[in-house]
Amino acid sequence: MNEKFQPLFEEFSFKNMTVKNRIVMAPMTNFLSKPDGTVTENELNYYGRRSDGPGMVITACTYTVPNGKGFPGEFAGDRDEMIPSLKSLADTIKGKGAKAVLQIFHGGRECPPNLVPDGDVVSASDVKSSQAGERKVPRPLTGEEINEIIKSFGETTRRAIEAGYDGVEIHGANGYLLQQFFSGESNLRNDEWGGSLEKRMKFPMAVVDEVKKAAEKADRPFLVGYRFSPEEPYENGITMDDTLALLDELSKKDLDYLHVSLMEYDSKVRRGADIDRSRLEVIQERVGEKVPVIGVGSVYTAEDALNAMESGVPLVAIGRGLIIEPDWVQKVENGRENEIETELDLEAQDRLVVPDPLWNAIVNSPGWFPGVK
Ligand SMILES: Cc1cc2nc3c(=O)[nH]c(=O)nc-3n(C[C@H](O)[C@H](O)[C@H](O)COP(=O)(O)O)c2cc1C
Protein backbone atom coordinates (compact mmCIF):
# COMPACT_ATOMS: atom_id res chain seq x y z
CA MET A 1 0.00 0.00 0.00
CA ASN A 2 1.09 3.53 -0.72
CA GLU A 3 1.94 4.80 2.77
CA LYS A 4 0.02 8.02 2.46
CA PHE A 5 -3.24 6.07 2.34
CA GLN A 6 -2.48 4.28 5.61
CA PRO A 7 -4.89 6.58 7.55
CA LEU A 8 -7.77 5.01 5.59
CA PHE A 9 -6.80 1.61 6.93
CA GLU A 10 -6.50 2.34 10.61
CA GLU A 11 -9.03 0.56 12.75
CA PHE A 12 -11.71 2.76 14.21
CA SER A 13 -13.39 2.15 17.55
CA PHE A 14 -16.91 3.30 18.23
CA LYS A 15 -17.89 3.26 21.92
CA ASN A 16 -18.34 -0.53 21.92
CA MET A 17 -17.31 -1.79 18.51
CA THR A 18 -14.27 -1.67 16.25
CA VAL A 19 -14.30 -1.55 12.46
CA LYS A 20 -11.29 -2.65 10.43
CA ASN A 21 -10.90 0.51 8.35
CA ARG A 22 -12.30 4.00 7.74
CA ILE A 23 -14.36 3.25 4.64
CA VAL A 24 -18.12 2.81 4.93
CA MET A 25 -20.46 1.76 2.13
CA ALA A 26 -23.12 4.50 1.96
CA PRO A 27 -26.77 3.44 2.09
CA MET A 28 -28.12 3.08 -1.44
CA THR A 29 -31.62 2.11 -2.46
CA ASN A 30 -31.43 -0.55 -5.13
CA PHE A 31 -35.05 -1.38 -6.16
CA LEU A 32 -34.17 -5.09 -6.00
CA SER A 33 -36.58 -6.53 -3.41
CA LYS A 34 -39.81 -8.38 -4.12
CA PRO A 35 -43.15 -6.52 -3.95
CA ASP A 36 -43.84 -8.13 -0.53
CA GLY A 37 -40.61 -6.61 0.81
CA THR A 38 -38.38 -9.68 0.94
CA VAL A 39 -34.83 -9.36 -0.31
CA THR A 40 -33.81 -11.24 -3.46
CA GLU A 41 -30.85 -13.37 -4.45
CA ASN A 42 -29.86 -10.55 -6.85
CA GLU A 43 -29.74 -8.15 -3.94
CA LEU A 44 -27.60 -10.50 -1.86
CA ASN A 45 -25.19 -10.93 -4.78
CA TYR A 46 -24.96 -7.15 -5.22
CA TYR A 47 -24.11 -6.64 -1.53
CA GLY A 48 -21.84 -9.66 -1.38
CA ARG A 49 -19.77 -8.21 -4.23
CA ARG A 50 -19.22 -5.00 -2.23
CA SER A 51 -18.91 -6.11 1.39
CA ASP A 52 -15.38 -7.49 1.57
CA GLY A 53 -13.62 -4.12 1.49
CA PRO A 54 -15.38 -1.51 3.64
CA GLY A 55 -15.27 -1.79 7.43
CA MET A 56 -19.00 -1.17 7.58
CA VAL A 57 -21.86 -1.48 5.10
CA ILE A 58 -25.03 0.53 5.62
CA THR A 59 -27.94 -1.06 3.79
CA ALA A 60 -30.51 0.65 1.60
CA CYS A 61 -33.32 2.11 3.65
CA THR A 62 -36.06 -0.21 4.92
CA TYR A 63 -39.56 0.96 5.87
CA THR A 64 -40.77 0.57 9.44
CA VAL A 65 -44.51 0.79 8.63
CA PRO A 66 -46.37 0.11 5.35
CA ASN A 67 -47.20 3.78 4.77
CA GLY A 68 -43.49 4.61 4.89
CA LYS A 69 -42.53 2.66 1.74
CA GLY A 70 -40.80 5.16 -0.50
CA PHE A 71 -39.48 3.11 -3.42
CA PRO A 72 -40.52 0.21 -5.62
CA GLY A 73 -38.41 -2.80 -4.68
CA GLU A 74 -37.64 -1.42 -1.22
CA PHE A 75 -37.20 -4.16 1.35
CA ALA A 76 -39.41 -4.34 4.43
CA GLY A 77 -38.59 -4.09 8.11
CA ASP A 78 -42.15 -3.52 9.26
CA ARG A 79 -43.17 -6.96 10.51
CA ASP A 80 -41.66 -9.96 12.26
CA GLU A 81 -42.27 -12.17 9.25
CA MET A 82 -39.50 -10.19 7.52
CA ILE A 83 -36.82 -11.21 10.03
CA PRO A 84 -35.49 -14.14 7.92
CA SER A 85 -35.26 -11.81 4.90
CA LEU A 86 -33.49 -9.14 6.96
CA LYS A 87 -31.20 -11.83 8.34
CA SER A 88 -30.18 -13.07 4.89
CA LEU A 89 -28.86 -9.60 4.11
CA ALA A 90 -27.07 -9.21 7.46
CA ASP A 91 -25.47 -12.65 7.01
CA THR A 92 -24.27 -11.80 3.51
CA ILE A 93 -22.62 -8.55 4.62
CA LYS A 94 -21.11 -9.95 7.80
CA GLY A 95 -20.00 -13.10 5.97
CA LYS A 96 -17.67 -10.90 3.90
CA GLY A 97 -16.17 -9.29 6.98
CA ALA A 98 -17.97 -5.93 7.20
CA LYS A 99 -20.20 -4.69 10.01
CA ALA A 100 -23.83 -4.61 8.84
CA VAL A 101 -25.99 -1.61 9.67
CA LEU A 102 -29.67 -1.47 8.72
CA GLN A 103 -30.97 1.93 7.63
CA ILE A 104 -34.49 2.48 8.99
CA PHE A 105 -36.86 4.90 7.34
CA HIS A 106 -40.25 6.43 6.65
CA GLY A 107 -40.70 8.24 3.33
CA GLY A 108 -43.52 10.56 4.41
CA ARG A 109 -44.68 12.84 1.59
CA GLU A 110 -42.10 11.40 -0.82
CA CYS A 111 -43.90 8.04 -0.95
CA PRO A 112 -45.45 7.37 -4.36
CA PRO A 113 -49.21 6.90 -3.67
CA ASN A 114 -49.28 3.47 -5.36
CA LEU A 115 -46.78 2.07 -2.83
CA VAL A 116 -48.70 2.91 0.35
CA PRO A 117 -51.99 1.40 1.60
CA ASP A 118 -55.04 3.16 0.06
CA GLY A 119 -52.76 5.78 -1.48
CA ASP A 120 -52.83 7.53 1.91
CA VAL A 121 -49.62 9.57 1.80
CA VAL A 122 -48.77 11.15 5.17
CA SER A 123 -46.43 13.83 6.50
CA ALA A 124 -46.13 16.51 9.17
CA SER A 125 -48.42 18.87 7.21
CA ASP A 126 -50.32 19.07 3.93
CA VAL A 127 -47.40 20.51 1.98
CA LYS A 128 -46.76 18.73 -1.31
CA SER A 129 -43.24 17.73 -2.27
CA SER A 130 -41.67 19.49 -5.24
CA GLN A 131 -39.60 16.41 -6.15
CA ALA A 132 -40.04 14.80 -9.56
CA GLY A 133 -42.25 11.71 -9.86
CA GLU A 134 -45.81 11.11 -8.75
CA ARG A 135 -46.42 13.01 -5.52
CA LYS A 136 -49.60 14.01 -3.80
CA VAL A 137 -50.60 16.47 -1.12
CA PRO A 138 -49.96 14.50 2.08
CA ARG A 139 -52.38 14.11 4.95
CA PRO A 140 -51.04 15.52 8.23
CA LEU A 141 -50.47 12.75 10.77
CA THR A 142 -52.56 12.71 13.96
CA GLY A 143 -50.81 12.70 17.33
CA GLU A 144 -51.73 9.05 17.79
CA GLU A 145 -50.30 8.10 14.40
CA ILE A 146 -47.10 9.98 15.17
CA ASN A 147 -46.68 7.92 18.33
CA GLU A 148 -47.28 4.71 16.37
CA ILE A 149 -44.59 5.61 13.84
CA ILE A 150 -42.14 6.42 16.65
CA LYS A 151 -42.84 2.98 18.15
CA SER A 152 -42.37 1.34 14.74
CA PHE A 153 -38.77 2.57 14.61
CA GLY A 154 -38.16 0.81 17.94
CA GLU A 155 -39.83 -2.35 16.65
CA THR A 156 -37.73 -2.41 13.49
CA THR A 157 -34.64 -1.95 15.66
CA ARG A 158 -35.67 -5.01 17.68
CA ARG A 159 -36.02 -6.95 14.40
CA ALA A 160 -32.58 -5.75 13.30
CA ILE A 161 -31.13 -7.12 16.55
CA GLU A 162 -32.91 -10.45 16.06
CA ALA A 163 -31.73 -10.59 12.44
CA GLY A 164 -28.10 -10.22 13.52
CA TYR A 165 -27.25 -6.66 12.42
CA ASP A 166 -24.46 -4.75 14.12
CA GLY A 167 -26.54 -1.60 14.29
CA VAL A 168 -29.21 0.63 12.79
CA GLU A 169 -29.00 4.02 11.14
CA ILE A 170 -32.00 6.31 11.57
CA HIS A 171 -32.67 7.98 8.21
CA GLY A 172 -33.24 11.60 9.13
CA ALA A 173 -31.95 12.91 5.78
CA ASN A 174 -32.75 13.45 2.10
CA GLY A 175 -36.15 15.02 2.66
CA TYR A 176 -37.95 12.01 4.18
CA LEU A 177 -40.34 11.96 7.13
CA LEU A 178 -37.93 12.84 9.95
CA GLN A 179 -36.59 15.74 7.94
CA GLN A 180 -40.13 16.77 6.95
CA PHE A 181 -40.87 17.28 10.65
CA PHE A 182 -37.62 19.18 11.22
CA SER A 183 -38.02 21.52 8.25
CA GLY A 184 -40.04 24.72 8.48
CA GLU A 185 -40.92 24.28 4.80
CA SER A 186 -42.80 21.00 5.31
CA ASN A 187 -43.86 21.30 8.96
CA LEU A 188 -46.54 23.96 9.51
CA ARG A 189 -48.00 22.38 12.66
CA ASN A 190 -48.96 24.39 15.70
CA ASP A 191 -49.21 21.52 18.17
CA GLU A 192 -46.45 19.94 20.23
CA TRP A 193 -44.81 18.63 16.99
CA GLY A 194 -44.24 21.97 15.27
CA GLY A 195 -44.18 25.74 15.54
CA SER A 196 -40.70 26.46 16.87
CA LEU A 197 -37.31 24.96 16.02
CA GLU A 198 -37.42 22.99 19.29
CA LYS A 199 -40.85 21.58 18.53
CA ARG A 200 -39.84 20.67 14.99
CA MET A 201 -37.00 18.61 16.49
CA LYS A 202 -39.33 16.74 18.78
CA PHE A 203 -40.29 13.96 16.34
CA PRO A 204 -36.73 13.07 15.27
CA MET A 205 -35.63 13.16 18.92
CA ALA A 206 -38.51 10.90 19.98
CA VAL A 207 -37.50 8.43 17.25
CA VAL A 208 -33.91 8.50 18.55
CA ASP A 209 -35.08 7.85 22.12
CA GLU A 210 -37.27 4.94 21.05
CA VAL A 211 -34.52 3.37 18.94
CA LYS A 212 -31.98 3.78 21.75
CA LYS A 213 -34.39 2.12 24.15
CA ALA A 214 -34.74 -0.88 21.81
CA ALA A 215 -30.98 -1.00 21.16
CA GLU A 216 -30.21 -1.12 24.87
CA LYS A 217 -31.98 -4.48 24.99
CA ALA A 218 -29.45 -6.05 22.61
CA ASP A 219 -27.34 -8.78 24.18
CA ARG A 220 -24.27 -7.58 22.29
CA PRO A 221 -22.73 -4.25 21.18
CA PHE A 222 -25.17 -2.58 18.78
CA LEU A 223 -24.65 0.74 17.01
CA VAL A 224 -27.22 3.51 16.64
CA GLY A 225 -26.39 6.18 14.08
CA TYR A 226 -28.35 9.14 12.76
CA ARG A 227 -28.23 10.54 9.22
CA PHE A 228 -29.11 14.15 8.44
CA SER A 229 -29.09 16.57 5.50
CA PRO A 230 -27.61 19.87 6.60
CA GLU A 231 -29.42 22.33 4.32
CA GLU A 232 -32.48 22.72 2.14
CA PRO A 233 -32.80 25.13 -0.78
CA TYR A 234 -36.36 26.29 0.06
CA GLU A 235 -36.87 29.72 1.58
CA ASN A 236 -38.33 28.33 4.81
CA GLY A 237 -36.22 25.19 4.69
CA ILE A 238 -33.42 23.96 6.92
CA THR A 239 -30.39 26.24 7.23
CA MET A 240 -26.95 25.39 8.57
CA ASP A 241 -27.71 27.13 11.86
CA ASP A 242 -30.86 24.98 12.28
CA THR A 243 -28.68 21.93 11.66
CA LEU A 244 -26.05 23.01 14.16
CA ALA A 245 -28.82 23.28 16.77
CA LEU A 246 -30.06 19.80 15.79
CA LEU A 247 -26.51 18.44 16.13
CA ASP A 248 -26.22 19.94 19.62
CA GLU A 249 -29.32 17.99 20.65
CA LEU A 250 -28.30 14.79 18.86
CA SER A 251 -24.89 15.00 20.54
CA LYS A 252 -26.62 14.61 23.90
CA LYS A 253 -28.29 11.35 22.89
CA ASP A 254 -25.37 8.98 23.34
CA LEU A 255 -25.44 8.00 19.66
CA ASP A 256 -22.60 5.96 18.15
CA TYR A 257 -22.24 8.17 15.10
CA LEU A 258 -23.70 10.99 13.03
CA HIS A 259 -23.74 10.64 9.26
CA VAL A 260 -24.07 13.69 7.07
CA SER A 261 -25.71 13.37 3.67
CA LEU A 262 -23.93 15.38 0.97
CA MET A 263 -23.43 14.88 -2.75
CA GLU A 264 -19.96 16.48 -2.55
CA TYR A 265 -17.79 16.21 0.53
CA ASP A 266 -16.25 19.64 -0.09
CA SER A 267 -19.49 21.54 -0.83
CA LYS A 268 -19.73 24.92 0.85
CA VAL A 269 -22.31 26.21 3.32
CA ARG A 270 -25.29 27.81 1.55
CA ARG A 271 -26.55 29.99 4.43
CA GLY A 272 -26.73 30.12 8.21
CA ALA A 273 -22.96 29.79 8.82
CA ASP A 274 -19.70 30.89 7.15
CA ILE A 275 -20.40 30.41 3.42
CA ASP A 276 -16.68 30.23 2.65
CA ARG A 277 -16.27 27.03 4.60
CA SER A 278 -17.17 23.46 3.71
CA ARG A 279 -20.25 22.00 5.33
CA LEU A 280 -18.28 19.00 6.51
CA GLU A 281 -15.72 21.17 8.33
CA VAL A 282 -18.40 23.29 9.99
CA ILE A 283 -20.30 20.18 11.10
CA GLN A 284 -17.20 18.39 12.36
CA GLU A 285 -16.11 21.48 14.28
CA ARG A 286 -19.48 21.76 16.02
CA VAL A 287 -19.76 18.07 16.90
CA GLY A 288 -16.10 17.87 17.90
CA GLU A 289 -15.15 14.79 19.87
CA LYS A 290 -18.66 14.23 21.18
CA VAL A 291 -19.79 11.81 18.45
CA PRO A 292 -17.90 10.37 15.45
CA VAL A 293 -19.03 11.91 12.15
CA ILE A 294 -19.16 10.05 8.83
CA GLY A 295 -18.43 12.25 5.81
CA VAL A 296 -19.60 11.46 2.26
CA GLY A 297 -20.01 12.81 -1.24
CA SER A 298 -18.28 12.17 -4.57
CA VAL A 299 -15.38 10.21 -3.17
CA TYR A 300 -14.08 8.31 -6.20
CA THR A 301 -10.30 8.26 -5.77
CA ALA A 302 -8.10 7.40 -2.79
CA GLU A 303 -7.02 11.06 -2.74
CA ASP A 304 -10.67 12.13 -2.44
CA ALA A 305 -11.07 9.94 0.65
CA LEU A 306 -7.95 11.42 2.25
CA ASN A 307 -9.13 14.95 1.44
CA ALA A 308 -12.52 14.26 3.03
CA MET A 309 -10.76 13.02 6.18
CA GLU A 310 -8.78 16.26 6.31
CA SER A 311 -11.93 18.00 7.51
CA GLY A 312 -11.40 15.96 10.69
CA VAL A 313 -14.05 13.26 10.18
CA PRO A 314 -12.85 9.80 11.23
CA LEU A 315 -14.92 7.85 8.67
CA VAL A 316 -15.78 8.32 5.00
CA ALA A 317 -18.72 6.75 3.21
CA ILE A 318 -18.64 5.89 -0.49
CA GLY A 319 -21.81 5.27 -2.47
CA ARG A 320 -21.62 5.61 -6.25
CA GLY A 321 -17.88 4.91 -6.16
CA LEU A 322 -18.55 1.40 -4.84
CA ILE A 323 -21.15 0.68 -7.51
CA ILE A 324 -18.66 1.76 -10.19
CA GLU A 325 -15.72 0.02 -8.49
CA PRO A 326 -16.62 -2.83 -6.11
CA ASP A 327 -12.90 -3.44 -5.41
CA TRP A 328 -12.21 0.16 -4.35
CA VAL A 329 -10.89 -0.70 -0.91
CA GLN A 330 -8.83 -3.70 -2.01
CA LYS A 331 -7.19 -1.71 -4.82
CA VAL A 332 -6.06 1.02 -2.42
CA GLU A 333 -4.96 -1.54 0.12
CA ASN A 334 -2.81 -3.30 -2.48
CA GLY A 335 -1.17 -0.16 -3.87
CA ARG A 336 -3.26 -0.29 -7.05
CA GLU A 337 -5.15 2.95 -6.45
CA ASN A 338 -4.33 4.05 -10.02
CA GLU A 339 -6.47 1.17 -11.28
CA ILE A 340 -9.65 2.35 -9.55
CA GLU A 341 -12.43 2.87 -12.08
CA THR A 342 -14.00 6.30 -11.56
CA GLU A 343 -16.59 6.23 -14.34
CA LEU A 344 -19.26 3.62 -14.87
CA ASP A 345 -18.24 1.10 -17.53
CA LEU A 346 -21.49 0.83 -19.46
CA GLU A 347 -20.46 -2.57 -20.84
CA ALA A 348 -19.76 -4.06 -17.42
CA GLN A 349 -23.15 -4.67 -15.79
CA ASP A 350 -22.49 -8.37 -15.15
CA ARG A 351 -18.90 -7.92 -14.02
CA LEU A 352 -19.96 -5.20 -11.58
CA VAL A 353 -22.92 -7.26 -10.29
CA VAL A 354 -25.50 -4.49 -10.62
CA PRO A 355 -28.85 -6.21 -11.27
CA ASP A 356 -31.35 -4.79 -13.76
CA PRO A 357 -33.66 -2.50 -11.72
CA LEU A 358 -30.71 -0.60 -10.24
CA TRP A 359 -28.70 -0.66 -13.46
CA ASN A 360 -31.65 0.69 -15.46
CA ALA A 361 -32.29 3.45 -12.93
CA ILE A 362 -28.65 4.51 -13.20
CA VAL A 363 -28.24 4.38 -16.97
CA ASN A 364 -31.54 6.19 -17.54
CA SER A 365 -30.54 9.15 -15.33
CA PRO A 366 -27.92 11.15 -17.24
CA GLY A 367 -25.43 12.93 -15.00
CA TRP A 368 -26.27 10.97 -11.86
CA PHE A 369 -23.22 8.72 -12.17
CA PRO A 370 -19.88 9.66 -13.78
CA GLY A 371 -19.75 8.06 -17.20
CA VAL A 372 -23.53 8.13 -17.73
CA LYS A 373 -24.43 10.81 -20.29
C1 LIG B 1 -28.58 4.73 -6.17
C2 LIG B 1 -28.56 5.55 -4.90
C3 LIG B 1 -29.47 5.26 -3.88
C4 LIG B 1 -29.42 5.96 -2.67
N1 LIG B 1 -30.25 5.59 -1.63
C5 LIG B 1 -30.08 6.12 -0.40
C6 LIG B 1 -30.75 5.58 0.73
O1 LIG B 1 -31.51 4.58 0.66
N2 LIG B 1 -30.53 6.18 1.93
C7 LIG B 1 -29.70 7.24 2.07
O2 LIG B 1 -29.53 7.76 3.18
N3 LIG B 1 -29.02 7.76 1.01
C8 LIG B 1 -29.18 7.20 -0.20
N4 LIG B 1 -28.41 7.67 -1.25
C9 LIG B 1 -27.40 8.72 -1.02
C10 LIG B 1 -26.03 8.09 -0.76
O3 LIG B 1 -26.01 7.42 0.49
C11 LIG B 1 -24.90 9.15 -0.75
O4 LIG B 1 -25.11 10.05 0.30
C12 LIG B 1 -24.79 9.93 -2.04
O5 LIG B 1 -24.89 9.09 -3.17
C13 LIG B 1 -23.45 10.70 -2.11
O6 LIG B 1 -22.38 9.82 -1.96
P1 LIG B 1 -21.54 9.28 -3.26
O7 LIG B 1 -21.11 10.49 -4.00
O8 LIG B 1 -20.40 8.50 -2.66
O9 LIG B 1 -22.47 8.43 -4.04
C14 LIG B 1 -28.49 7.00 -2.48
C15 LIG B 1 -27.62 7.33 -3.53
C16 LIG B 1 -27.62 6.61 -4.71
C17 LIG B 1 -26.61 6.94 -5.78
Précis, in short:
The protein has twelve helices and twelve strands. By secondary structure, the protein is α/β, with parallel strands linked by helices. The protein is globular and about 55 Å long.
Would you write up a description of this structure?
An eight-stranded parallel beta barrel has the order 3-4-5-8-9-10-11-12, surrounded by five helices. Strands 1-2 form a two-stranded antiparallel ribbon. It has a two-stranded parallel sheet with strand order 6-7. With 373 residues, the chain is an alpha/beta fold. It has helices at 41-48, 83-95, 143-162, 177-182, 197-215, 240-250, 279-287, 302-309, 320-324, 328-333, 349-352, 356-363; strands spanning 12-13, 18-19, 23-25, 56-63, 99-105, 122-123, 139-140, 167-172, 223-228, 257-260, 293-296, 315-318. The structure holds flavin mononucleotide (FMN). Residues 26-29, 60-61, 103, 171, 173-174, 227, 261, 263, 296-299, 318-321 line the site of flavin mononucleotide.
Approximately what portion of the residues adopt beta-strand conformation? 5-15%
Major sheet: 8 strands, parallel, barrel
Structural class, by secondary structure, is alpha/beta
Oligomer state equals single chain
Mean pLDDT, as a whole number? Answer: 98
Query: Nearest-angstrom radius of gyration?
Result: 19 Å
Order of helices and strands: EEEHEHEEEHEHHEHEHEHEHHHH
What small molecules are bound in this structure?
flavin mononucleotide
In helices, the fraction of residues equals 25-40%
